[in-house]
Amino acid sequence: MSETETVVVTGFGPFRQFLVNPSWTTAQGLKVAGLGESIHVYIKELPVSYKPTQQIVAELWETLKPKFAVHLGIARASSLVILEQSGKNSGYRERDVCGLCPTDHRCIRGGPEKMDSVVNMRAVSKHFQQAGVDMIHSRDAGRYLCDFAYYCSLYHGQRRAAFIHIPSSGSLASAEKLVPLLQEIIVTMLKQLEEPKYQLDTMVDLHPASMVLP
What we know:
This protein is an alpha/beta fold. The chain has six helices and eight strands; from the N terminus they run βαβαββββαβαβαα. The strands form two sheets. The protein has a six-stranded mixed sheet with strand order 2-1-3-8-4-7, with helices on both faces. A two-stranded antiparallel sheet has the order 5-6. α1 links the parallel β1 and β2.
């Protein structure tokens, strides 16, 4: 990556007891810390509301054309970092902060039911687990705004996205530990994207038919 490339990092706005959402302050911390000289980090706060989040995510991909997008959300009552593999299209019945649900309770009308990130989250989590980090991977992002934003990003970004649930408790919840760890995680994901296998997967995914995943 000799030329500067853009990586989008998002966090969420206020939600319930989180008047200042830790996911957004963590995104701000990553902006300051950076991801290396060749990466421009662009951060954006997403509201805990379906329609504007859908619009913002689509616009980020259309206007910035980033190499990768990383979306952060808070995992309540968890001390683990959770790497989400999949986003789901339907089943969004929990109301957002505006009291609304998405049309037809889905992200994208006509989109596949499930989309997986091109990044192998199991491999990434295993790498950090071996180093003693409290981390797991998951295939269920919760069917609320986290899952919703993730699916929209996977759809518009040809699966070049990740969702990371950050802990709300435990030692990793502190910004001093969490921001450097997330730096390492995201850089690891970017390195994985440079591998020939993942470059081929991404090229194939530019064809709409390939977006229908098993």
